[in-house]
Here is the input.
Amino acid sequence: MRYVVTGGAGFIGSAVCRAAIAAGASVLNLDKLTYAASLESLAEVEGCPRYAFRQADICDAAAVKAALADVQPDAILNLAAETHVDRSIDGPSAFVQTNMVGTATLLEGALAYWRSLSPERQGRFRFVQVSTDEVYGSLGAEGRFDENSRYQPNSPYAASKAGGDHLARAFAHTYGLPVVVSNCSNNYGPFQFPEKLIPLVILNAVEGRPLPVYGDGGQVRDWLHVEDHAAALLRLAARGRPGETYCIGARAERRNLDVVQAICAALDALRPSGAPHARLIAHVQDRAGHDRRYAIDPGKIESELGWRPRIAFEAGLRETVAWYLDHRAWWEPLRARYDRSRLGLAGAAA
Here is the structure.
């Protein structure tokens, strides 16, 4: 298999690149290298002759066309996205540009490329639009999102991802482009940018800083290890049914406060000099429009494609904490290059 992975220097994208190379595929990583990108996340595959990197923006139609012509991929996995909800509240336009305009540009390039292929290669080609459970809005106390759930995005980030998904579906319906859409739950694991909840809490604790918990911490998220997610996406690229949506999750619902406390417990065991780390927990003003609960029913991808998550949340979280403790050289430069002040308060007053 030959893949073009957009956003391959990001958290999930780099995991997909590493997994694809490990599986024997060839990968072109197409990434703009925004503030959250890290080529250091790909150090283990940099020397592989089946891996290549090209700095480009998916909004650049000429760059997209050239990449597809050069690589002749069997699948495109679109992971290029602005993803941080707090940032989308403060500046939604950047999210619209990448997540909607960029997706539209990439789809147009993919359509032209797909039409140039032989019928046999057209049948094997897939465009995998990688999305989020946040497009569905907020659940009540019961139930789970599935492929028939109604879109009801509540943040600018979620709305921009929903727009990209709708464009992908439209290209499948109108033009016959073999699109597969995935909606995943919250990812965690190594190489995640430090502004996200789990690495933020780990690194703040290491530095003796407060561990911010939004509101009462009762928001529920369904956690999925990034390596399990990468395996699922490669399965969709190879065997996903065109025109279909697949929800990807690990049935690991946890309250945010419980996740923070579990990180503290792992740190107490792995770094006892700072114990008890839970003393640093600080409840702060909640995010504007904060969704209360997400949960994914992954039954479709499990039954149709045989995918199952391998990594239990408790074990995966402890391994993640240990990884950050052991890889200061990876995260320390990232902590130094972005403003760590609280974001996402722009909508609170209104």
In short: The longest strand covers residues 126-132. The radius of gyration is 20 Å. DSSP finds twelve helices and twelve strands in the chain.
